[in-house]
Design a protein that fits this description.
41% helix; alpha/beta; 333 residues; TIM Barrel; 8-stranded parallel barrel
Length: 333
């Protein structure tokens, strides 16, 4: 195995019985899970996930989005669609812990010049910018804005399973010239297999390493590969790993935190608080939010499609008629 890694240019950064100290884990339970309930959580849930991340030794917790109120109405969406400073402080106080707080800003959907405050006025540590290839020019300005305000910055490059290789190379070559700290490979539709994740991670590493940047991985579980693909990226050199408690996230959900922490072997992580949070707070949400692997999500993942059709079907009266959904989605091909 080690010989094969060397042939593929993979640098082994740790053995099975040790751990990689460069690994940083980000919990996206509240942010990604908020896509299933318009970010309308009870404060109790937010506080519990926050305390769980602290107790479990997680590096980052993503609270939600910095979305434009000109695009998204505060009467329709909960406070974690906007992550205003007063809402953050109501839950976190001054956050006098080692846990870093993250928010996500979608390119072209964020009034970032005004809504992202200077770092000295905020308890947020990291601004993560989510972007599609065609939004790279604005993304570069968003990176500069957040960096100049004092934040750590990362970029989630979305829907790369639909991007031509030449365009992806161009995007990466531009992004690494910015002040961004890390670039995330995102399996937006849960469409990738292990071989593709490995090849893409190596591509990201080639650009990032030369520029002194890190590489991250964010996966979805449409084909029950979120955990496996996260590990594949880690082995290939990714050091920023996204996961959520019990996989809570949009549609099929994300890499499960409880699986990831068990794999990493780092003594700073504590699994028991995660299990307790699942039992007492996350599992009771499942009937309401209905996230996790299901056949409709598997089908959209297999076809490399956004899961919106599957999510709509799962909320319909026909949700048990899987053949009907199969026939409808195959007609679109």
């Amino acid at each position: 195995m080690e010989e094969n890694r060397k042939k593929e240019g993979i640098e082994a950064k740790g053995e099975w019985v040790t751990y990689r100290p460069d690994i940083k884990v980000l919990d996206c339970t509240i942010r990604d899970g908020g896509l299933m309930n318009n970010h309308q959580y009870d404060d109790t849930i937010i506080k519990k996930v926050y305390q769980t991340c602290v107790d479990a030794g997680i590096d980052y917790m993503e609270m939600g989005y910095k979305s434009s109120k000109k695009i998204y109405s505060p009467t329709q969406f909960g406070p974690w669609k906007f992550c205003d400073e007063d809402a953050l402080r109501r839950i976190l106080g001054e956050n006098k812990t080692s846990l870093k707080i993250s928010v996500m800003a979608d390119a072209e959907r964020t009034d970032y010049h005004t809504d992202i405050l200077p770092k000295e006025n905020s308890i947020v540590d990291t601004v993560r910018i989510a972007t599609y290839i065609h939004q790279i020019p604005e993304t570069m300005d968003m990176i500069k804005d957040a960096h100049d305000k004092g934040y750590e910055t990362t970029v989630n490059l979305m829907a790369v399973s639909t991007v031509q290789e030449r365009d992806l190379d161009d995007a990466l070559s531009v992004l690494v010239t910015s002040d961004v700290n890390a670039i995330y490979l995102v399996d937006s539709f849960g469409a990738f297999y292990g071989e593709q994740i490995r090849d893409l991670t190596l591509k990201y590493m080639k650009y990032a390493k030369a520029a002194g940047k890190e590489v991250g991985i964010h996966t979805h579980n449409n084909q029950q590969l979120a955990y496996a693909n996260t590990i594949e990226a880690l082995i290939a050199g990714a050091s920023r790993l996204d996961a959520s408690i019990a996989g809570l996230g949009r549609g099929a959900g994300n890499c499960q935190m409880e699986l990831l922490l068990g794999f990493l072997h780092n003594p700073k992580f504590n699994l028991r608080p995660i299990i307790q949070c699942i039992q007492e707070y996350i599992e009771p949400l499942r009937e309401q939010l209905r996230w996790g692997f299901d056949i409709p999500y598997m089908l959209t993942g297999r076809l490399n499609q956004h899961p919106r059709d599957a999510m709509k079907f799962m909320e319909s009266n026909d949700r048990k008629n899987l053949v009907k959904f199969f026939d409808s989605i195959m007609e679109e091909e």
